[in-house]
Specification:
Layout lengths: L19 E5 L11 H7 L3 E7 L1 H11 L9 E5 L2 H4 L5 H15 L5 E6 L1 H5 L4 H12 L4 E6 L9 H10 L14 E4 L4 H14 L5 E3 L15 E4 L5 H9 L3 E2 L7 H15 L4 H26 L3 E4 L6 H12 L2 E7 L8 H6 L5 E6 L1 H11 L3 E4 L1 H9 L4 E3 L2 H4 L8 H19 L1
Parallel strand pairs: 1-12, 2-3, 2-4, 4-5, 6-7, 6-8, 8-9, 10-11, 10-13, 11-12, 13-14
Length: 429
């Protein structure tokens, strides 16, 4: 018999005050350019122009999997030897490329100039270029810039930088407008539609999303705005919204049944709606998710998992795997631990979970090899070597390319972790 997962399963001590192992050393991560792969699909009238090298172009092209005859909404303005040698004015060259691009693609309404390691190394001022080009092409096209460089960032921070660049352009909230809710973080359209429907049924009208699917539908923001983060890696975006007077609603992240329910309850409470209404609205969805999760739990319960720092999704997913699927988290490593944004997640993690922030890949590899987890969640650069050593792995980048938020996707999220264990069992048979 399938049971509905309780709305408030009690935490077993939590990690709110747990010590954090802070590490600084060699890192194994993708750069922020990777965010273009899901952002260009989400904002349907935007274009992402990377100012970088041929390596940048190959990375984005291969990660996106765009066929040669497709016309995607991203490209690379390649910095070549003439630019590096100072034989050409890079700003003039950029103006020429942008003008030609907008002539060819008149449907573009927002153009992002995306900085890279090469453009930052040669000190190319893309902020000035964006201001100049925006003043020339407005009101038809707004030109913004952000950095996707991997020098100091991890790959999900590309989305954070992109959304933070949008915040200053958002319209002010009209003075007489009622307080509204903005859900912040790029979500697949199917997940966004599910959340919009649930929030409307709960009683929160006119919910908006950042980013919106089109430039004209970006939310207005002001002192009456409340926002709910859908992703844990949006620190700069949250800070920019708070600078506009918006207030963040504290909540766990909507991963798994428990996280989604608590996330919806937090939104409801901010608008004076009782938790009992959330329970009524979500009862059927929770029951479906519980039944689907029960099938995955048999493969995952009692198994150990080790998280290398990569996506900043590690703590919410560790909470989901531990509390809803019965896995034992040996270590939850994350590139950056934002204690304020992750306070609810830390409180729900099982007591005794080892937490690490930052990366020293050699030391983390030593700990992982010593503990021999049943499953290791890591980046692509580490997965194949660990597989060769007999460890089952899960690519963390799949967690941003796959719809995993909400009730209907809870079992799909669990399946991402069950699949490599089943594969390992078949190979060992």
């Amino acid at each position: 018999m399938t049971t509905v997962i309780p709305l408030h399963a009690e935490a077993t001590g939590g990690c709110s005050t747990a010590p954090v192992l802070r590490e600084r050393g060699q890192r194994e991560v993708f750069c922020g350019l990777t965010g273009i792969v899901w952002l260009h699909r989400k904002i349907q009238d935007a274009f992402f122009l990377v100012v970088g090298s041929r390596t940048c172009a190959h990375l984005v092209q291969s990660a996106a999997g765009v066929m040669i005859f497709a016309e995607p909404r991203f490209a690379t303005a390649i910095i070549d030897e003439r630019d590096l040698a100072g034989l050409a004015d890079a700003q003039d060259e950029l103006d020429r490329v942008v003008t030609r691009l907008l002539e060819r693609r008149p449907e573009i309404r927002t153009l992002f100039l995306v900085g890279s390691c090469p453009s930052e190394v040669i000190k190319l001022d893309l902020s000035r270029a964006a201001q100049r080009l925006s003043s020339h092409f407005m009101p038809a096209v707004r030109v913004l810039n952000y950095s996707g460089s991997g020098i100091e960032t991890t790959f999900t921070q590309g989305e954070d930088a992109c959304l933070a660049s949008l915040v200053p352009t958002l319209a002010p909230l009209p003075g007489a407008a009622a307080p509204g809710l903005v859900v912040v973080g790029a979500l697949p359209d199917v997940v966004e539609d599910q959340f919009a429907r649930l929030l409307a049924e709960i009683g929160i009208a006119g919910v908006q999303f950042l980013p919106a699917r089109h430039a004209a539908r970006m939310p207005a923001v002001g002192a009456g705005t409340r926002f709910l983060l859908a992703q844990p890696f949006l620190a700069d975006t949250a800070k920019a919204l708070e600078g506009r007077g918006a207030r963040r609603i504290a909540a766990p992240f909507p991963l798994g049944v428990e996280g989604t329910t608590r996330w919806l309850e937090a939104a409801a409470a901010a608008f004076g709606i009782p938790a009992s209404r959330v329970a009524r609205v979500t009862e059927a969805a929770r029951a479906r998710a519980a039944a689907a999760l029960a099938r995955q739990r048999t493969a995952l319960q009692g198994k150990t998992v080790f998280f290398f720092p990569d996506s900043q999704l590690e703590l919410p997913i560790a909470r989901f795997l531990a509390r809803e699927l019965g896995m034992q988290v040996l270590e939850a490593g994350t590139p950056y631990l934002h204690r304020e944004h992750l306070a609810d997640e830390l409180a729900l993690l099982p007591a005794g979970t080892r937490l690490s922030e930052g990366q020293d890949v050699d030391r983390q590899l030593d700990r992982c090899r010593d503990q021999r987890p049943d499953l290791t969640v890591c980046g692509l650069g580490l997965a194949n070597p660990l597989e060769a050593e007999g460890l089952a792995t899960k690519w963390s980048i799949e967690l941003v390319f796959t719809p995993i938020h909400g009730y209907e996707q809870a079992a799909d999220l669990a399946e991402l972790f069950a699949r490599p264990l089943r594969r390992r069992e078949l190979l060992s048979a």
